[in-house]
Design brief:
The protein is mainly beta. The chain has one domain: Beta Barrel (Porin), CATH 2.40.160. The protein is 4% helix and 59% strand. The protein contains two helices and 19 strands. A hairpin with a 2-residue loop joins strand 9 and strand 10. The radius of gyration is 20 Å and the shape is globular.
Length: 365
């Protein structure tokens, strides 16, 4: 069974943290906020059997704190496996500076995600969007500028041989036996007024290693991105260009999540262009947001073994009380989880567009 019905939008994690909890944190009062979610999914595919409406996710959340200390954790149960999403402690030195320790979102690119859909953009499946790993991150705000500096020890389980995970990480396979090791991250973003709206301009970079588990040898792993986001009167526009590189022998490396290992190009550019509009309250709905998310993976140094991959997601999210529903039309060309053999790779067959209509209904408590 394909794992794609279980892909989860990282934006939803923020819904579980009540606003009054963060207000109490600023006031120094103790708080304890359990939460959770249950979701159902349906998918019609033109490249495989239709997935009937079925239970997709059970989720448990906990947010707690007292004074400058806070803690956040989330655990998820999917069909056939369970996995940690995040679990970290934070210490707030001041209104401008915070230190976070534990399994947390990696600060790279636009945050929280370079997408608005349930399906994310191409970067998610490449491990550079909504990735969660164990590390230490210092967040500092100075005026309109936010800085992230952090170090990560590897993936959340410390083993590329474990495929049942939420985040997409380097996978250990027989042909490509690698796992993630240490990485250093830096990110800066500046907010300013522009054309009657808010413009965010930023850049991100990281450098680290992956290890061949058979030989013990380490290879370089780097990435960089420039990103921009503009919001005005319900409109959101996102632009990002990212490049990642694994200095491993050959043109490929394997990744995995949701019990499904697959191969990607070892070096590629990943441009993204998204637009969304929030209609706000609309009839009986609390919010209606429609969007189009376009992204691609363009391998660096084209050869017979690699080629471009594309993904486009058009859809709407509908919110009413605790219910949040996504209706997405996903189109992919040479794209894993959309009828492709991998991402940015060429297995010799034709490169065709495939489509999927996906409905996800969630209740968040």
């Amino acid at each position: 069974m394909r794992a794609i019905p279980f892909i989860v939008v990282g934006l939803l994690a923020s819904i579980a943290l009540p606003v009054d909890a963060s207000e109490r944190d600023r006031d120094g009062d103790a708080y304890f906020e359990p939460g959770g979610a249950v979701r159902f999914n349906y998918g019609w595919l033109d490249y495989g059997p239709t997935s009937r409406l079925q239970l997709e996710l059970l989720r448990a959340d906990l947010d707690a704190g007292s004074g400058p200390f806070s803690f956040s954790a989330q655990y998820r149960w999917y069909d056939g496996f369970d996995a940690v999403h995040h679990a970290y402690a934070a210490w707030k030195f001041s209104d401008a500076t915070q230190l976070k320790v534990g399994i947390q979102q990696v600060p790279f690119g636009l945050l929280p995600t370079v997408s608005q859909s349930f399906w994310f953009g191409s970067g998610y499946y490449l491990g550079i969007e909504d990735d969660y790993d164990p590390g230490v991150v210092l967040v500092h705000r100075s005026g309109s500028t936010t800085w992230h500096v952090g170090g990560f020890s590897g993936d959340e389980y410390g083993s590329g041989a474990r495929y049942d995970r939420y985040s997409f990480d380097v996978a250990q396979t027989d042909q490509l036996p690698y796992r993630e090791r240490q990485r250093l991250h830096g990110r800066v973003e500046d907010a300013r007024d522009w054309a009657g709206g808010e413009l965010l301009l930023g850049a991100s970079a990281f450098a680290g290693n992956v290890q061949n588990t058979q030989t013990g040898r380490h290879y370089g792993h780097q990435g960089a991105a420039i990103h921009a986001q503009w919001k005005r009167d319900g409109w959101t526009t996102q632009l990002q260009w990212a490049r990642y590189r694994y200095d491993v022998p050959g043109e490929r490396i394997a990744l995995s999540a949701f019990q499904a290992p697959f191969e990607i190009a070892a070096q590629a550019d990943v441009p993204s262009a998204n637009i969304a509009y929030s209609f706000g309250a609309n009839g009986w709905l609390d919010d209606l947001t429609c969007y189009n998310n376009l992204s691609m993976t363009r391998p660096v140094g084209h050869s017979a073994g690699v080629r471009d991959s594309w993904q486009n997601v058009t859809g709407c999210s509908l919110q009413k009380g605790i219910m949040l529903t996504y209706v997405d039309w996903i189109a992919g060309r040479n794209m894993w989880f959309a009828g492709g053999d991998g991402i940015g790779i060429n297995e010799g067959g034709p490169s065709r567009w495939h489509s999927r209509l996906n409905l996800n209904i969630g209740f968040y408590f």
